[in-house]
Structures are given as structure tokens and as C-alpha cells.
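Would you mind writing out a protein's amino acid sequence and the numbers that encode its backbone to help me picture the idea?
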Amino acid sequence: MIEINKLNFAIIGYGSIGKTHALAAYDANIRYPLPYQLNLTHIVTRKPIEVKLQGVKNVTDIQQVLDDPNVDFVDICTPNDSHMQIVEKAAAYGKPVYCEKPLASTYKEALQMVQIVNQKNLIHGIAFMYRFLPSIRLLKYELQKETIGQVIDFKIKTYHKSYLNDNKKDTWRIKKNSGGGALLDLGVHLIDLIQFTLDDIKETEYKASIYFKERTEVDEISRCDCILNNGITGTLEVSRIFAERKQTDDYVIYGTKGSIKVSLDNPYEIEIYKYESSLTEIKNASHDQELMKYYAGQRNSLGFFQNCHTASLIHFANKVYGEGATSIGADFEDGLKCQRIIERLYNI
């Protein structure tokens, strides 16, 4: 039962991403005139921890959350291979579920998760938070207008450097039970962006590599050549060990009349190059209320990563509260589509 003007939820797992989700809730309450308060009531961890958040309980048994009729949804922020078990438990109690990406460690488990929430008719969502970048929403709008004509090709990539750190050798993300490496961890966002803005991926050619073979069991670098259902071709590249001064996250789409470029270091703008006039136009989303809905402006930004998580959580919470779904927020079906492609690539 939803308490009037209060939406109670529990975070399962409290690593770095769990803290990001917690901050998203407080950010949402402070920044936006929502018809409810996002109220974090429980944090579930394997071992007891000290939680310095007023009104938030730490418990080590998820059953305490499931038995509480005042908890309106659960937010899963645990390792990939634990997601399905938590969804099974939450579904048995009719709790809506918001889940970190990827949906699971395997396609089989992801499929079972979709079947579980559909059988129970549960509200469900996945944190494909890149969708909420104003630049991505502006890009999609310009593609619908055919600003660069018919799309020919695309290039999308993200380069991270964190796994150059030898201390990462003990994290669960470099183990086989994570389900995969760079492609599953980071590439899942890129696959979702391709399918969100262009079309579903039909065919792929894949190449993966591991440099630090002595300390990792999963791909550190992944490259994919893609063909979409509508015939558009393109490439995807992702790495957890490429170091540059600035993190590289680029999405470029080439058309018959020019190109559009999105760079995540400026999530408010897109760069449009017009072939016939040889002119470059910078379009800014900052003054468009619809594109900026639930996304912080530049002066108040917490960084694109946190801003996107806030927007994604709000969209899911709106569904739980009864505000209805939107075409932006992702659900388990979207997660399953991405997982199907990733599993196929890993088995090539």
C-alpha cells in the first residue's frame, strides 16, 4: 500500500552504485516538485553496516523488507548473478522491482526474470540511465526530423581506465560469474542506446581481448560490427583499460546530409554537421523543458552520471506511484533484448 505523498523503497546492496541510487532519491526530492516523497526506508547488506541516514534501517535479511507492507518497491544494486533470486523473492510479495544493469549474468536468467514479473503483473524497470541525457533525447528528435537525411552508419564507444588499477583484481566484475566483462558492464548501455535511438540490432561480428590475463577472467576490450533491422550499419567499441585525460564517450551518426555527434562530456549539446553548406550547428537542450525534465541544469549539475540516475529513478517511481509509463524509461524487456545480443556475442 502506498502511503499518501510518500513512496517507500529499499535498496538491496550498498556498494558504489547503491550509494548512487540513494543519492538519486534525495536529489529527486530536493530538486523536483514530485507528487510524492521518495523515501528510502531500508538498506539490505550481507554484513551489518552503519547507515548515517536518518530514518533508514540497515538489515541483513531481505525478508524484513518483503514482510513490510509499507515498502512500495525494491531497488536491486547487487552483483549480476544475484538479481534473479531477488526478483523471485520480491515477486512472491508483489513488490515492484527496479534493477541495475545488466538484468542478469546470463540470458537464461534474464528471460526468467521477465517471465516472473509478467506472470505477477509487476511494475519493473532497469537503470539504462544514458537514455535520460538531454543530448540523447535531442539526437533522437533530430533523427526523427531527418535533419541529416537517411542514416548510413554510426560509431559509438566508451573508454574507461579504472581496470588498469591492480586493486581491481579482487572485484566481482572481473570474475566469470559476473557473466561478462566490458561488453556486459559498459557495452550494455551502448547497445541500449543504439536500439533506443535507431533500431534493434539484427546481426553482429564480435572481437574481444584481455590484456591483463593474470588478473581478469572476462573481456577488457570489446568491438562489434552491427547491422540493424532497418539495414543501418555501425560499430560499437568499449574498453575498461583505455586511459586518456578525459574519458571518451562518443556517439556519432552519419547520414546522407551530414552527421550528428554526441559527447557525454557535454550532455546538453549535440553537434550537427551539414554537408551541403559545410556548416556546423551546435544545438543546446538546456532551454527545452521537455528535454530537461528531471535532469539538472549545468549550474546545478552533479555530473551526467548522477543526473541520469536521478532521472531514471524518478521515471520508475512515477510508474509505481501511478503516473504512468513513458517512452523513455527502460524495463526488463529492454534489458532482455540487450542481454540476448550480448550472450550471442559471447558464444561466437
Observations:
- The chain is about 30% helix and 25% strand.
